[in-house]
Amino acid sequence: MTKAKTRHEACYRLRLEQRHPLHGQILALLVSSLVLPEGGQEAADAGLPPGCADAFEMLAKLPPEQLHAVARLLDGMVEIRLPPAALAAAVHEVAGSQERRQLCLQRCEWLIRHGGSNRMILLLCPALCADDVRQLRRRLGIPVNKGRLPALPLEARLSVAADWQATAGETDTFLRYRALAERHPGCTLGQLYSTVAAVEGGCL
């Protein structure tokens, strides 16, 4: 693979063997190119040199084995152009996604240790899936609590409701629940979650 630099983008030229996965992709590109540009302006917008229309017409008539032969002749002529802005955006997106997942895994562990249900965890940790939660529960040795949680006394529920409403300015729901758990250490997250659901539903 060779790399050529231009002012605005990086260009990679790949030399391919017939068994290389990209060889099949070249074929797919050839097939997808069978739609002819309508008129000279559309051809110019597509970056096609003048006089290429006949090649497209011939491609449309080639049988599969000849398409393979055309693809073999394109070895060493494939270019991938990477605009720096698009590359930077992709790198930051992947890095940010990994950071979000690690944060969610840390939060998931805290929620499991404090009695959070799987439904609550998936709501507060959107970067995780149900299988992630199951694996972490298995590693921590903390299964799902299948019993019915006892309801909090009315006075405790009113106190929880007041503390929940006091954190309404916080946009991170996990942080609100963590603050609520710190204010009510005698309650499980399941009990807090049920109480908050009643508050949000206008039932308390």
Automatic annotation (TrEMBL):
Name the domain of life. Answer: Bacteria
User: Per its record, how is this protein called by name?
Assistant: DUF2857 domain-containing protein
Lineage start:
Bacteria, Pseudomonadati, Pseudomonadota, Betaproteobacteria, Neisseriales
